Amino acid sequence: MPLTNTLDLIGTLKAELNQFRHLDNAKIQEALAIEYTYESNRIEGNTLTLQETQLVIEKGLTISGKPLREHLEAINHKEAIDYIKELAQSKSALTEHDLKQIHAIVLKSIDKENAGAYRNVPVMISGSPFVPPQPYLLSKLMEEYFIFYNENKDTLHPVVLAAEMHERLVTIHPFIDGNGRTSRLVMNLILLQHGYPIANIKGDAESRKRYYAALEKAQTQDDKSDFIQLIAETVKESLEKYLSILR
To answer: What is the mean pLDDT of the chain?
Structure first.
């Protein structure tokens, strides 16, 4: 389906969602946040199941045989969702401070030294031909990142803006670790600000392959069409799922 059609459909679904807002409740929000935490961490190789993720977050349980880091990833990610929800309520523009704060929560107690700080070493992405920019280029690239955001935040379709900010951040790769999670959280902050539910990219092998292929195409061929389409479809599916619960 062409992007314009997907965006039209998203508009229709969102208008319908607005009719159901009064049915929205904390329990649904909580369940969706845990599912998003599970999938986003799963993309990065976390092995906790959905049920284990829920037990760690809601009951504070320790899952035997699973590393401490995976527990912290679940707890931190849920906290980061709470943080972006707070930011979304304020309706203020995304700042560099917000971005670093999101990242600081993602890596809290996992990597104190690098949590909320841009990297000062080169990095490689395993399994990808794309090499992220050298550390000395980061301050200029991040400045351009926020210039793009501020110039486009009121004119681009929110779904396209969210996809752009996701792809641009993960391509700059400003952090040593946690770039993917942080980029998806930034995307969802923008979506939440515009009244969309959280867009949850799945972490199963097939979905992950498609996600990385679309990203790689954007990074190595300067063609973002597949990636923006993928995000739009994810937003559409998240809206459909949300509506089916409220209906």
So the answer is: 96
